[in-house]
Each structure stands twice: as C-alpha cells, then as structure tokens.
Amino acid sequence: DKVCQFANVLKNNGVKKGDRICIYLPMVPELAISVLACARIGAIHSVVFGGFSAQSIADRINDAECSLVITADGGFRGNKDIPLKNIIDDALVQCRSVQKVIVLTRSRTAVSMFKGRDVWWEDEIRKVETMGNPECPAEEMDAEDVLFILYTSGSTGKPKGVVHTTGGYMVYAGYTFANVFSYQPNEVYFCTADIGWITGHSYIVYGPLSQGATTLMFEGIPTYPTPGRFWDIVEKYKVNILYTAPTAIRSLMSFGEAPLEGKDFSSITKLGSVGEPINEEAWHWFDEKIGSKKAPIVDTWWQTETGGIMISPIAGVTPTKPGYATLPLPGVQPILVDENGKEIEGNGVNGNLCIKFPWPGMIRTTWGDHERCKQTYFSTYEN
Description:
Layout: H1 2-12, E1 20-24, H2 29-41, E2 44-47, H3 54-64, E3 68-72, E4 75-77, E5 80-82, H4 84-92, E6 100-104, E7 118-120, H5 121-130, E8 146-152, E9 160-165, H6 166-180, E10 188-191, H7 198-210, E11 214-216, H8 229-237, E12 241-244, H9 246-253, E13 270-273, H10 280-290, E14 297-299, E15 334-337, E16 343-344, E17 352-355, E18 365-366, H11 370-378
Helix pairs in contact: 1-2, 1-5, 3-4, 6-7, 9-10
C-alpha cells in the first residue's frame, strides 16, 4: 500500500517511465518504499549513500540527468546528525536537470524549502490520501528495461553508473538469496548493509522481498549507542539469518566479551559475510560467539557489477572453510587466467579471476557510456 501510495506521489510530481530519480535518504523504511515505487512505475532509481558529499551527489545527478530527488531533512549516524537536505541544496547549485525535490521529515533539522521545487513527503502523501488512495498499477516492463543505476565510487575519473535491468537482475537477486541462505518461510533475515550499496539493493530489498522473506533494516552504526546494538536487534526480533561485513565483525570483536553477555543468540541458524575477504580470526569469532558453532557461515564473493553472489557456500550444503568463499554457484563459470589471458588450471595457483560465461545479474552497461563498460570489464582478456 505504501509503495503504491508513493508511486502515485511520484506520478503527481511528473515522473514517468524511464525518468531517473536520485534517492538520498537515511536507512528508514521510506528508502525501501522509494526504491520500490520507482520500480513500480518504471522510473530508474539511483540511490546515493547518505554519507556522500555535495560534489559526489552533483556528479551522480548530472551523469544520469535525474529529474527528481528524494531526500530527508536529516539523518542520524552514531551521535551525529547528517544535514541531508542542506547537502542536497549545495549539490543542486550545479544540477540543471532537477525539477522537484521531495523531502521526508526525519530529524526535524531546520531546512530551506525552495518554492516551486521542494515539497514535503508528508504533504504529498496527504494529497494522494485525499484522492482516495487510488491503486497504482505496475508499469509493464521489458526484461531488459533499466531497473536502476548504481554508481561505483570512481577511484579514477568520474563515477561509473553500473546499469542493472528488470528481468535478469531480479531473477538473479532472488535465486541467489533463496539458495545461498537456504531461506525457509517465516525466517527473519537481517542484512546490516546500507541500501546505498549493492548489498542493500540485492539483499535487503530485491532478493528477500522477491522471495517473500521477512527482511530487517537498521539505521546508524553497529557501535552506537552501544557495541551491543546488533545483538539487541538479534534478540528483540529473533533473527535467524545475519549477513554482515568482516569490518563490522572485527570492530565488534575489539569490544571483547562484555557486549555479548546475557544476549540470546539461540534464534540464529545461518550467518553470512560480505564486502571483503574474512580473516580466520574473525571467522572463528563469528562462528563461536554468534553462531554457537551450529550456524553455517556463507562467505560470499561478488560485486556491484555482478548484481548478486557469484562464489559462496550454500548454507547447510557446502562444507565451509574459514577464509574461503568455496565454490561458484550453479551456472557461474569462473576461471583463472595469467597476464596473457591464458587459462591456469590446478590447485595452489594464482591468477586473475574472470567469468567465462554470462549470468542473469551481470552489468548491462555503464550509464551513457557503453564504450567505458567494454573497456573496463570486457577488453582485458579475449573472450
């Protein structure tokens, strides 16, 4: 209902299929609602992580020529208030394409509202309610129509807008979620990522929801107000599956045993690691302290450009080994090649990891610059 409601808000503000929408929100339910409302009407969302600077936002808005921005007055990160709307105002000085800004009330920070451009989320929802909350039929989409753009932080040059499409991406996000986590109906699943990154897109929003899973999101950082924050959430919502990053695990390990004392981890049946290789020490701590040595750990290798998990144990099926992502998922064909692109075989060898054959969730192009996509991902080694 909320998604339909906000999809109508977008339509009322002139959004149509194919338009690009920049979303710069904290980790609140309205972020997921905005993403799904865009998908419902065929608008292309470009979510920007709530920690980025005005310049980074301006670059991303201009590259995709976004016509509308969804933001909040502010957000909370640890003990800091992030003035999201003020940052957007600074960014928009450089952006000619933006016609409208929808502002959610979150932190009650004082903001300037520009007449004719800025509108409050709550006022816009009330207009839709006054219309009697009409249904918003889902837009008919081709499998290869663009679903979203997600920028990978350009360490070199301007940021790359990774493009994922409607059919393949959703199929792959759903397939990998259901299988890697061996998801069972009614399990409570908690991925601690931010929706501003691909992990949040694939494994907080699209993957779990496409499979009818219960997905949990949190705002803030794992160590505030106390380093027991994750464990309080696990206990309160009886979390069954916890998917987090080695950085978070190491950070929480550094607080010692005290934050774990008296916490109930009995609901945990499966654990997952994402974002970087996990070191053995962190793996064992996660296994013993959080999983009570009875919850398989899926150590997942993938990236923004793959759309979903590529190499990982399947929970309860694949034998696990600390620090190893184990085997490719069914259908994924990884190979190692030397610097000349020649395939290297056998064990105990080093090489460059390539994928031999396409899969549904792979990057389709970089927004507005297909040549860059070819150069970056497909030109280094033949075939």
